[in-house]
Amino acid sequence: MADHHRVLIVGGGSAGISVAARLRRADPSLDIAVVEPSEFHFYQPLWTLVGAGVFKPEDSRRREADVMPPMVQWIRDRVAAIEPDSRAVVTASGRRLTYDWLVVALGIQIDWNAIPGLAEGIGTRGICSNYSYEHVAYTWESIRSFRGGTALFTMPNTAVKCGGAPQKIMYLADDAFRRSGVRDQVSIVFATPQKVIFAIEKYRRTLEKVIARKGIDTRFRQHLVEIRPDAHEAIVENVDTQERSTIPYDMIHVTPPMSAPNVIKASQLANDHGWCEADRLTLRHPRYPTVFAIGDAAGLPTSKTGAAIRKQAPVLVTNLLEAMAGRPLTAAYDGYSSCPVVTGYGRMMLAEFDYDGKPKESFPFDQSKERYSMWLLKTQVLPRLYWHGMLRGRL
Fold first, then answer.
1. Which terminus of the chain is more exposed, N or C, with fewer CB under 10 A?
2. Which of 10, 265, 258 is nearest to 157 (CA)?
3. Does residue 54 share a domain with residue 69?
4. Do 46 and 60 contact (CB within 8 A), yes or no?
C-alpha cells in the first residue's frame, strides 16, 4: 500500500500529539498523519505517584483515539524502518508511507533485557519499577507491605526519562515506611552512576539535605548490571573501575536502562549515540532538512522530560511551517527542561533549567525549597494542563 502525507509524524506520545495539535490549530487544511500502534496514551509523570499509592494506574491513562487531534489521520501501526533518502517510512504491516515533511517523535526505548534477571523477575519477589504501566502497581504493593530489611533504589548508566524520577519514589517510600512504623527496621540504599545527587547546584543543595534528613545510604558511581531474583541479590558495577559488588536486598526499585528506539539507531537519521540528530536550537535535522525531531528521541543535550517537550513543540511547529513556506527558521529552543522532584508526601521542589544548567524558574520565589504548593502543582494542576492544554496545542 502506498500512502503520501504532507506532514508525517512518527510517534503518538506526548511529543507527537502536541505537534499534531499545534499544526492543526495553525493550519486546519494541512494534511497530517500520525503513526502510533498503541490503544492507550499515558501521562507517565503520574507513575511516580501511582507507585507511592497516591493515584491508581488507570488515572494515568486515556484512549489514544480520545487524544488524537481532529482531522488528523491516525495510522495505527508500528514504524519498522525510516528511509530519509527516499522520504519514506515502512510500517510493521508492510505499508510504505511517503512524506514531504517528517517529525520524529518516537520517544525512548526501555531496555528491560539489558540487565540479566530483570525482565523475568519484574513484578515478583520484591522487584518493582515505575517505568511500566503493567507493573507500577506492584511498586506500591511492595512499599506498603514492606516490614524491614534493605530497600534498594537504582539508576542506570544511560539516558532516562526525567533524571530525577529514580530518586522521587525513594523519598516517598521513606515517608511510607515512617507512616507504617517500620522505618527503623529499613536500610534505604540509592545506587547511582552519577557523581552527585543532582546536576544543578542550586537544587542539589536541597536534595543533599533531604538525603541527610532521611538517612539514605547513597552509593555514587554505581549502576545495576544484574539481578538474582531468587537470591535477592543485586550486582552493581563501579563506572570508573568496573569493579563489581553484591548488594543483598529485600525490595528493589529498578530504573531500567534506556536508549534510542532501534528503528532510529538503524536509520540514517541517527547520531553517534543512536538518537535522531537535530539542531539544538531549531530541532531540524542537519543532514535531512525535511526532518525535524522532538522529545526523548531527539539527540539534544538536555533532560528528557515532558516539560522539555512542552517548550520544544511550539519551536518545532513554528520552524516547520517556516521551512514549508521556504522562509528562514526564526524560533529557537533554549534547552529548557523541568524536574518536579517530589521529596515526600505533600512536599516538592521544582527544578527548571536550560542548556547551560542555569535555573530558569517560572514562579517569583525560590523553587529550590520544598513546598506544599508545588505538591499541589504536581498532583492537581499539571495533569489537567497536560490532558486539556498541552495535548490540545494550547499550552
1. N
2. 258
3. yes
4. yes
Decide: helix, strand or coil at residue 229: coil
Domain count, the chain: 2
Does residue 116 sit in the same domain as residue 94?
A: no
CB 268 within 8 A of CB 84: yes
Pair type for strands 96-104 and 88-91: antiparallel
**C-alpha cell read off for 341:** 522532584
Taking the C-alpha atoms of residue 380 and residue 372, their distance in angstroms, rounded to an integer, is 12
Query: Per the domain annotation, does 368 fall within a domain?
Result: no
Is-contact 188 215, C-beta < 8 A? yes
Q: Is residue 64, in this structure, part of any structural domain at all?
A: yes
Distances (CA, A) of 219 to 24, 29, 130, 149, 197: 48, 55, 21, 17, 10
Any domain includes 242: yes
Going by C-alpha positions, the residue among 185, 156, 188 that lies closest to residue 169 is 188
* 144 plus 244 within the same structural domain: yes
β-partners of residue 122 are none
Q: Is residue 306 part of a domain?
A: yes
Joined together, the cell numbers standing for residue 123 give: 513484578
pTM: 0.96
Range of the domain at 227: 112-257
CA atoms within 13 A on the CB side of 52: 26
d(CA 51, CA 43): 14
Beta-carbon neighbour count of residue 42 at 10 Å?
17
Residues 24 and 145 in one domain: no
Residue 139 to residue 142: CA distance in whole angstroms: 5
Cell of 286: 542537519
pLDDT tens digits, one per residue of 108-149: 999 999 999 999 999 999 999 999 999 999 999 999 999 999
Q: Which residues belong to the active site? A: 162, 339
Q: Hunting for cell 529498578 — which residue is that?
A: 254
Helix (H) or strand (E) holding 219, with range, is strand 217-220
The neighbouring-strand residues paired with 102 are 8, 291
Among residues 332, 17, 48, 45, the alpha carbon closest in space to that of 173 is found at 48
Alpha carbons within 13 A on the beta-carbon side of 45:
26
Q: How far apart are CA 313 and CA 69, in angstroms?
A: 15
CA distance 159 to 256: 10
Under DSSP, is residue 139 helix (H, G, I), strand (E, B) or coil?
Answer: helix
